[in-house]
Amino acid sequence: MSVLVHGAAGGVGTAVTQLAVALGARVLAVVSSSTKADVARACGAHEVLEVEGPIPWTGPARR
Question: From CA 29, how far away is CA 49, in angstroms rounded?
């Protein structure tokens, strides 16, 4: 199972990331800065997309 968490460094996003990882899901986190990417990784995200503006889904979401 894979889970996409948009806003993964916020309050709800960090909780969702941790819960999904605990349930055995692969987590793809979407954040808007390198600082927030560090937060998402610390919560257990397997892949982190650092984006501004439109999100380029095709590459990382297919891995």
Answer: 6
What is the DSSP secondary-structure string of 1-63?
-EEEEETTTSHHHHHHHHHHHHTT-EEEEEESSHHHHHHHHHTT-SEEEE-SSS---HHHHT-
pLDDT mean by block of 10 residues, the chain; 63 residues: 95 98 97 96 97 67 61
All structural domains of the chain = 2-51 (3.40.50.720)
pTM of the model: 0.81
Sole residue written with tokens 């055995």: 24
